[in-house]
Each structure stands twice: as structure tokens, then as C-alpha cells.
Design the sequence.
């Protein structure tokens, strides 16, 4: 598949602080790529370099296989860290200005305003907007030139649950259009909910990258509840179980490689037991994340 | 080019402060120039002594060709108003961080600077044209005789005035880019001439020949003070090519320093 972005050994030092350390990334067309990392791990700095506002200390990157230039940036829609607009201009005027810079048709403005549901407030000055409206206007502005790539940096930061849900809904809608999205976030579930691929940064170092679907692969854990006195014994008799734990009212069965919940279900049924509760625990990105970070701590001592 | 100018004007056209400052500036320019003669007449009527000791009608303040240099020099005093507008326009970009978004959206840093320089050129050109028209009109009203082409001598001060404004606006733009905060920049701008004067006075004793090369001095030198001629003193009543050359070099340097700063800093 076509490579949209690739970085080679991209590095940024702020004085003695190494904010981004020899970063190699690859994003392919159509991916929703999550950049995950705690605050201060270098996400915004990386995106700043990719968008020409932070001068890299070392390394290279290319968009669509071409060296960076301001022409390429016009084809990318990006909002870094906070929405930035002229406070004394209305939402509409801000977008008109941006259309001028991006050489985008002004006829796109009503469309993007509609998408983020800001049409009825477009004439109001930007400084009168609520935080959620500002974030939505930022997304609208990023979509203005019908970009091939969309870059969003903590787009739900500081929003209430409603606002967060709205923004995620918008992102998903955009993703189904086949756009490539790069989403930086410190929130695991956000990445898990919207991304197809992700990379984990820690103190400027890349500690993991791969598809989100791979997360949760490996052995499965199944929660079981059934009305039977000797359930524990029965479960131990299941050849697919590698261990069994009792948690509150339920048993958690850790499955061996190659066994799944349906195998357990069939086994119980054959024994004449109908489970009232049988759920595969999806291994959350959070656990994976913590595991990866723990591994990184042990394996590679982080150079600073 | 025109595209870049349009971008910067789009930022200003709905900005109330811009209209207030520019409005005040151009109003003062027109009103000041147009009312000068009336003011002198009023002085003459009100204070009889004043009218007797100097016959105001004999001072050809508003007569061709004196009016060209007289107005160009006087208008030069007001350029500080425009300069403050330029400082606000550039420092806003840093305080609102909109310069960052402009670059992200696809302007290069050069283009960003050029868009600001183009606005400076436009403001300078409008000032020059306006002052030229005022000089033309008031000259036609007050000059007792129209004697062309003699009446046009000194018209070369208008391109010089244009350069004077543009050079000073370039200086203000550079200060704004270097300092990035409006209050501090304006304070420094207001004191810049004083600072230069102090440095100049200290050097004057040793290297008096360097004085015309000082940046603000070179800008002032473009259109020299004309009024001393009414006290029977010699004044330079022509545009000196040397002063143009020095001011051009400084103008280039101001913009170049701004460019260097923008180029190498993280935004
Ligand atoms: N302009 C700057 N000057 C100095 N240090 C900076 C600057 N920008 C970011 N940093 C530092 O670089 C590190 C990475 O920051 P950032 O990229 O903003 O992280 P993230 O976006 O992942 O939260 C942090 O330690 C931050 O303090
Ligand atoms: Mg950040």
C-alpha cells in the first residue's frame, strides 16, 4: 500500500532535553494511525516537525515520498495541540482566511461547517465560542481543503463526555471516507476506539508500533457463570484451560493457544450445563500499553 | 505576490484596532496638512504681534515648490502611528500563535514575512499618494503664482518619503519579530531614536563621519528638515542619493534580520 508518511531517525532536542529521539515511523494510505504516549512524550513535537513549525535537530521525513515543502502542507489538514484562530474574526472569516492560505475553494466552507454542526454560529466571533465549538471549528478547518491526510492532536482534550463522543463520532465518519488520519492522544481508549494502527511513544522513544487488532491476540480469557456446585472441578476438566481463577461470582478461565470461548461453551453444554454468563475478556489496550511500557523499562534503558 | 497581500489584508480588514489606528493616522495627516495655513492665519488674527513680527503671508509654507518638502517632512513625523499598527499586527500573530497555524496551513516562513512586507509597502504607498495629493491641492489653493516646471522642484522628496515610511515600518516589523510581545516592542520602538541618539553622541566625538550611517538617522536624512530656510539658513532642498543608498541598505537588513529570526526559530 502507498506510503503517506515516513520518518527516518527524526530527532528534536530542546537544549539538553531530547523531546524526540531517532524516530522511525511509517503511515500507509487509509490508516487511522494513533500516536499514543503520556504527556510530554514528544507527540506534539513530532507533529510540529512534520508540519514545518519545529525545525528538526536531525533526521528526515517525507510526505507521499517527497521531501517536505509548504506546498505539501496545503494538502494536509492539521490541528496541533490547541485550536488556533484569530479571536476577533468570526468562524466564517477565519475559514475564509484559511481557504485563501490553503488555496481551497470557498464553496467548501458551508460543507465543513455543516459537518461539525457550526453553521448557525458561523457569524459569531471566534472568541465567543465554547471550547467544544473551538475544537469543532478546528476540525472543520482541517477538513477545508478536502485533505488526503488529517492530523489531529488530542482533539478531545478538555471536553466533557458529550463533546468527546461528538468529536469521536466525527472522526469515525471521516475515517469511513477513506482518509488517512494521524491521531495523537494520551488516552488509550480513544486510540483503541478509533484507530487501526498505533505507535507508542515514551520520552521521545518509539517503544511499539503495529495494528490495533493485534492487541488482544494471544491467549484469551473467558468469564463463566453457571449454576453448578462443582463448576470449578468441571472447568479444570476442560482441556483448553490453562488456569482457572475465581473472581467474585464468576470464574475466569485462561485459554490455551488455539482454544476459544465457543470451545468452552460446547464443552459445558456436552456436560449438560448451560452457562448464564460467558464472555471473552478483550485484553484492553491499557493492559497492553502498560505491559509494553514495562517491557521498555526493562529491555532498553532510555537514553536522554 | 498579490495573493500574499490579500492574505495579510484579510487578517486586518475585520480588525477594529486596525481601522481605528489607520483612520486616526490618515485623518491627522489630512487634517494637519490642510489646516496648517488656517492655523497660521488664525495666529496672525488672534495675536496681532505675531502677525506683525512675521508676515505669515510672506512665509511660503504652502507655496510651490516649498510645499513638497515641507509636507513630506511633517508627514514623516506621523509615521510612528503606522509603525505601532505594524507592531500590533505582527505581535498578534505571536500572541495568538496564528503564525504557527499559518505555517501549518501551508505558508512558508518567507511567504509569511513577505505578506507582512507587502502590507508595509501598501501603507507606505498610500501615505505617499495621500500626502502628494494634499500638497497638490493646498499648493494650488495658496500659491500666488503657478510657475511650472520650477514649481515642481523638490517633488523627488515623495519617493524619498515613501522610502522613509517603508524603512521605518520594516524596522518596526523586525522589532516585532525579534521581541514578539506588543507592549515591549512598542516601548522599544518609542525609545529607539533616543537609544540611537545616546550611542551616536558617544561615537560622534571619535568618528563623526559615521553619523549618517546610523539606521534611524539615515531614515530621517531622506527628507531633511526644511523650515530652517525661513530663518535664512542653508538647508538641503534636494534628495541626496547617498542617503537613499544608506536607507535602502538598512531597509534590506531590517527585513533580512526578521527573515533570519523566523527561519531559524521554532514557531
Ligand atoms: N518549545 C519548547 N521548548 C522546550 N521544551 C519543549 C518545547 N516544546 C516541547 N518541549 C518539551 O518536549 C517534550 C515533549 O513535549 P510534547 O511534544 O509537547 O509532548 P506531548 O505532545 O507528547 O505531550 C516535553 O518534555 C516538553 O516539555
Ligand atoms: Mg501534546
Sequence:
Amino acid at each position: 500500500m502507498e506510503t503517506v508518511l515516513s520518518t527516518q531517525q527524526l530527532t528534536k532536542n530542546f537544549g539538553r532535553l531530547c523531546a524526540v529521539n531517532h524516530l522511525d515511523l511509517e503511515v500507509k494510505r487509509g490508516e487511522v494511525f494513533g500516536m499514543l504516549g503520556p504527556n510530554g512524550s514528544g507527540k506534539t513535537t513530532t507533529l510540529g516537525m512534520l508540519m514545518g513549525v519545529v525545525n528538526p535537530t536531525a533526521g528526515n521525513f517525507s510526505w507521499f515520498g517527497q521531501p517536505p515543502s509548504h506546498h505539501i502542507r496545503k494538502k494536509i489538514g492539521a490541528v496541533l495541540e490547541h485550536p488556533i484562530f484569530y479571536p476577533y474574526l468570526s468562524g466564517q472569516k477565519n475559514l475564509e482566511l484559511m481557504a485563501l492560505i490553503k488555496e481551497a475553494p470557498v464553496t467548501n466552507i458551508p460543507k465543513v461547517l455543516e459537518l461539525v454542526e457550526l453553521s448557525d454560529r458561523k457569524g459569531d466571533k471566534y472568541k465567543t465560542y465554547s471550547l467544544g465549538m473551538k475544537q469543532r471549528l478546528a476540525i472543520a478547518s482541517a477538513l477545508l481543503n478536502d485533505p488526503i491526510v488529517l492530523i489531529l492532536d488530542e482533539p478531545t482534550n478538555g471536553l466533557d463526555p458529550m463533546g468527546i463522543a461528538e468529536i469521536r463520532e466525527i472522526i469515525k465518519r471521516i475515517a469511513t471516507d477513506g482518509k488517512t488520519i494521524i491521531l495523537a492522544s494520551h488516552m488509550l481508549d480513544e486510540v483503541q476506539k478509533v484507530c487501526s494502527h498505533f505507535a507508542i511513544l515514551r520520552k521521545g522513544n518509539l517503544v511499539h508500533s503495529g495494528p490495533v487488532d493485534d492487541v488482544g491476540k494471544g491467549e484469551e480469557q473467558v468469564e463463566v457463570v453457571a449454576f453448578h456446585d462443582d463448576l470449578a472441578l468441571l472447568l479444570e476438566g476442560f482441556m483448553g484451560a490453562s488456569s482457572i481463577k475465581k473472581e467474585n461470582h464468576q470464574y475466569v478461565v485462561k485459554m490455551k493457544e488455539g482454544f476459544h470461548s465457543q470451545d468452552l461453551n460446547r464443552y459445558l453444554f456436552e456436560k449438560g450445563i448451560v452457562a448464564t454468563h460467558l464472555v471473552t475478556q478483550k485484553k484492553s489496550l491499557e493492559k497492553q500499553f502498560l505491559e509494553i511500557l514495562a517491557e521498555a523499562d526493562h529491555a532498553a534503558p532510555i537514553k536522554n | 505576490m498579490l495573493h500574499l497581500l490579500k492574505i495579510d489584508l484579510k487578517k486586518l480588514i475585520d480588525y477594529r484596532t486596525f481601522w481605528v489606528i489607520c483612520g486616526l493616522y490618515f485623518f491627522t495627516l489630512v487634517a494637519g496638512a490642510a489646516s496648517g495655513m488656517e492655523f497660521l492665519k488664525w495666529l496672525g488674527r488672534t495675536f496681532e504681534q505675531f502677525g506683525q513680527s512675521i508676515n505669515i503671508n510672506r512665509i511660503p509654507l504652502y507655496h510651490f515648490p516649498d510645499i513638497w518638502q515641507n509636507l513630506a517632512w511633517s508627514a514623516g513625523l506621523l509615521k510612528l502611528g503606522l509603525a505601532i499598527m505594524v507592531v500590533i499586527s505582527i505581535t498578534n500573530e505571536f500572541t495568538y500563535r496564528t503564525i504557527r497555524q499559518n505555517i501549518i496551513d501551508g505558508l512558508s516562513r518567507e511567504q509569511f514575512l513577505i505578506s507582512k512586507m507587502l502590507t508595509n509597502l501598501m501603507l507606505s504607498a498610500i501615505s505617499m499618494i495621500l500626502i502628494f495629493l494634499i500638497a497638490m491641492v493646498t499648493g494650488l489653493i495658496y500659491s500666488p503664482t503657478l510657475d511650472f516646471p520650477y514649481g515642481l522642484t523638490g517633488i523627488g522628496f515623495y519617493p524619498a518619503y515613501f522610502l522613509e515610511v517603508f524603512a521605518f515600518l520594516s524596522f518596526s516589523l523586525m522589532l516585532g519579530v525579534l521581541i514578539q510581545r506588543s507592549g515591549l516592542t512598542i516601548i522599544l520602538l518609542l525609545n529607539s531614536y533616543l537609544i540611537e541618539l545616546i550611542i551616536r553622541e558617544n561615537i560622534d566625538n571619535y568618528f563623526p563621519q559615521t553619523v549618517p550611517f546610523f539606521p534611524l538617522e539615515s531614515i530621517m536624512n531622506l527628507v531633511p528638515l526644511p523650515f530652517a530656510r525661513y530663518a535664512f539658513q542653508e538647508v538641503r532642498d534636494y534628495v541626496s542619493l547617498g542617503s537613499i543608498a544608506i536607507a535602502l541598505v538598512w531597509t534590506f537588513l531590517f527585513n533580512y534580520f526578521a527573515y533570519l529570526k523566523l527561519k531559524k526559530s521554532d514557531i
About this structure: Chain A has two domains: 3-214, 221-281. The first helix of chain A runs from residue 43 to 50. Chain A has a mean pLDDT of 88. The longest strand of chain A covers residues 3-14.
